[in-house]
Amino acid sequence: MTRKPFSYLLLLAVIIAAPFVFPSFGTQLATLWLMIIVALTWDMTGGQMGYNSLGNITFYGTGMYVAAVITIGMAYDVGDYTNAAGGGIHAFTDLQYFSGLFLGMLGAGLFCAAVAVIVGYVTFGLRGPYFAIGTLGVAIATGELVSNWEWVGAGQGIALPVYPGDLDTGKVLFYFLFAGTGVALFVFLKWLYKTRFGAAVNAIRDDEEKAEAMGIHTLQYKLATWAMSAFFVGIAGAISAFQLIHFEPLETAYQTINLGIFMVVCVLLGGKGTLWGPVIGAIVFHVFKEVTWTYLLGWQWVALGALIVITVVYFEGGVVGWIMSKRSERLEAREQPNDAAVGAEQ
Amino acid sequence: MDQIAGNISLLFQFPIVNLKIVLDGIMIGSLFALAAYGLALVWGVMNVKNLAQGDFVIAGGYISWWLVENGVHALLGVPIAFIVMWGFGWFIYRVIICRVIDRDLFTTLLATFGLAIMIAQILNLLFGSDTQSVDLGYNTLYFFDGFIDVPIAKLIGVLMAGTLATGVIIFMKYSRMGQAIRATAQDRRAARVLGIDTDKVYSFTFSLNAAICGAAGAIIVMVWIIQPFYGITHSIRAFVIVTAAGLGNLPGVIAAGLGIGALEQYGAIIFGIGYQQAIAVLLLLIVLIFRLSQQRRVRQSLQ
Q: Distance between CA B198 and CA B37 in Å, rounded?
């Protein structure tokens, strides 16, 4: 037991040292943290509550847009800014930039949580695969609607101001924003899953009718869980918006078949319904993705589709599930000779 | 907003335009209904919700298009796409579907989604991302002083879709295999007890579904356009139709298919072609919510 806090401290040291040890991988590492955040938040509803959403990407895209609108709106008229797209008014003071970054993150998180509650009222009536299809529909429809909305730049998207200081410092800043959010989320979930709330959420997954009969207000729990996961995804989206500088609705913000599916695959790879599963899955998936993107260019999407199919069809429990089954096998193997020895003595 | 209002008032000024839109919608909707019928078959018999449905359609279309490029007559493309996609469906069943059929529904949903990505991307690599279509070179019929144009190619497409659908319905009703499929859909265990090889029934059903989709795609390439990434929209349409009509409700599937075709044409005229996918998705949401409230009422009446 005494080794546990030590290993966590070591992990924290690795997280802090990483961008300085591998400066050329700064953006890559930041993206890895983004994958970890979205995988962990997906597992909140998908793994722990049994509601497999395919539409969590809605909050990522909405977070991006909310952060952009807040930042721009504090300095200029948003409509004029997007109309000028690239021509003329782009000057932001340092104060405007950083207050926009901070308030944008906060606003994006809160707005997305509110959206989750409102959308959840409708979609949580759907069960099983209908919930997945319904939320996927929400994501696609939101993306299409935003891409036709002139005020936020329609299909062209929005260009945010560039980080005012040195570019390398900016990369480190974004890394630590993502990493900070990720660590905070992990610690929060570690605590949350041990509370009564976590137990209630697991009860909903195991048998919703019985949970309701036991006096759990299932809809409230479902809405609260989804709102919490939307809060963190919204923050991640806001940071992404500032990191990417320019984004457009269909390919970057509401990227239904990219990030929207990646988060699900990460969780399934790592192991559903576990705390470490999404983290491990995100790391494995990100490495796989970068390797195929580099060495199998052109076929990367086919490889990705194949990875999804193989993961789903052949690796039911994911990495963590596999390790757990191995461990229990080993424990059984260790115990069995003892039984035999006891039997022999008698 | 003004443009939308203008488009709507245009529809009232020229009532004849409505007739054209409805006709167009019904012609394209008959093909939607075909793909949706395949989905309802797989859904009802195997309880697999196939998200790669639309990609089967597009794959069939590309088979036919490729044959035409290599000098085969376009009308021959339909039966060939039917046969090739039959084999493809059988292969997919053996490799993927038979392993996920007993697992929870989200697993099958995700497995077929991965499959959908693979098919779309392979088609993209093989044939490029341009939209393609096949020109049959037939005349167009004009009615009402040229206000309504009906290309003969479209008429042939609708006729072929109708023939295929009738053939499948007769097969399901009277053949031994069709009876076995319907028996399995009703009660899987009872069917097995009575000596039906359900695994064979499943692989046959899934192959038949892929073949129907392939033929539908081969017709779509003659009357419309295809593109590697249009598959997801076709899948969503098929889901809308089946959810709206309910499983095992054949006249409902046909009616919903034709209705969706007409609604989408209206949406494209009123809001512009850019909203096509959004309209399909919003229809899905509306249908899901409507079904939900219906179910809730049933649950309440039970209590």
A: 20
Of residues B270 and A112, which shows the higher confidence score?
A112
Tokens of B48: 């697999």
Give the strand pairing for B148-151 and A158-159. Answer: unpaired
Residues near A147 by beta carbon (within 8 Å), at least 6 away in sequence: A154, A155, A248, A249, A250, A254
Helices within A124-207 (DSSP H only): 129-146, 167-192, 196-206
Within 8 A by CB and 6+ apart from B74, the residues are B64, B68, B134, B136, B222
Distance in angstroms between the alpha carbons of the first and the last residue of chain B:
46
Contact between residue B33 and residue B95 where contact means Cβ atoms under 8 Å apart: no
Choose the closest CB to B278 out of A125, A141, A313: A141
Of the pLDDT bands very low, low, confident and very high (cuts 50, 70, 90), residue A189 is: very high
Residue among B106, B124, B275 minimizing CB distance to A148: B275
Could you give the domains of chain B?
2-302 (1.10.3470)
% of chain A residues with pLDDT over 90: 22
- What is the spatial distance between Cα A314 and Cα A321, in angstroms, rounded to a whole number? 13
Which residues sit opposite A246 in a β-bridge?
Answer: A159
As a CATH number, domain A26-315 is 1.10.3470
Task: Tell me if chain A has a CB within 8 Å of the CB of B282.
Answer: yes
Does A314 reach chain B within 8 Å, measured CB to CB? yes
Shortest CA distance to A159 belongs to which of A230, A76, A236, A235?
A: A76
